[in-house]
Design a protein that fits this description.
heterodimer; A: mainly beta; B: seven-stranded mixed beta sheet; four-stranded antiparallel beta sheet; 11 strands
Chain lengths: 116, 114
């Protein structure tokens, strides 16, 4: 079974700082990779996803992530964070099987606080 | 377009009881997945339904079951509740089951078992 590790459980940054949240997964096969975000009081929503092709993917609100296959990593980045980026961030993976995939395996999440 | 809705939003039960949670997916979405979220274990996949058939199942005991109706609405049932079943139960819907579709999450049902 696959697993997902998010290195930082809590991150505190000042506005305009650069952000990188680490995510590593363990699975030897082909995977689909996702970052979801949960803003205070809101539902989980998709930030970005990667299936194949260019390993650098861009998502909403200026976020991007890079898939490095050799490192089993899918780190999330943003060059300049804003106070409104305060949220819980989840990395997730599902493994492809046949014509479909299994359920999402989530990391434990990173609670990001942006100080004005 | 209306989002994923879950009912009830909050529920208090006692040990040994059973509970049924309901999820209405986004119109046109045929896949519904259920997740359990707890502070200790995080988000864990329970099962996925597509066209009234369970396609995937996570590592949960048989006390956790679900079903999907012809209109894609889904229910999950937990029998013989235990204290450890206290959690936020999230439902997510997507168009299909390729694994590449975006899953749209509902607000969750918060279950407290006393």
């Amino acid at each position: 079974a696959q697993s997902v590790s998010q290195h930082n459980h809590h991150v505190i940054l000042s506005e305009a700082a650069s952000l990188e949240l680490g995510c590593n997964y363990s699975y030897g096969g082909t995977v689909n990779l996702f970052w979801y975000v949960q803003y205070p009081g809101q539902h989980l929503q998709l930030l970005l996803k990667y299936f194949s092709g260019d390993p650098l993917v861009k998502g909403i609100k200026g976020f991007e992530a890079e898939f490095i296959k050799s490192k089993f990593s899918f780190n999330l980045r943003k060059p300049s964070v804003q106070w409104s980026d305060t949220a819980e961030y989840f990395c997730a993976v599902n493994a492809r099987s046949g014509g479909g995939a299994d359920g999402l395996t989530f990391g434990k999440g990173t609670h990001l606080i942006i100080q004005p | 377009k209306a989002g994923v809705t879950q009912t009830p939003r909050y529920l208090i039960k006692t040990r040994g009881q059973q509970v049924t949670l309901s999820c209405s997916p986004i119109s046109g979405h045929r896949s519904v997945s259920w997740y359990q979220q707890t502070p200790g274990q995080g988000l864990q996949f329970l099962f996925e339904y597509f066209s009234e058939t369970q396609r995937n199942k996570g590592n949960f005991p048989g006390r956790f079951s679900g079903r999907q109706f012809s209109n894609s609405r889904s229910e999950m049932n937990v029998s013989t509740l235990e204290l450890g079943d206290s959690a936020l139960y999230l439902c997510a819907s997507s168009r299909g089951t390729s694994g590449r579709e975006t899953q749209y999450f509902g607000p969750g049902t918060r279950l407290l078992v006393l």
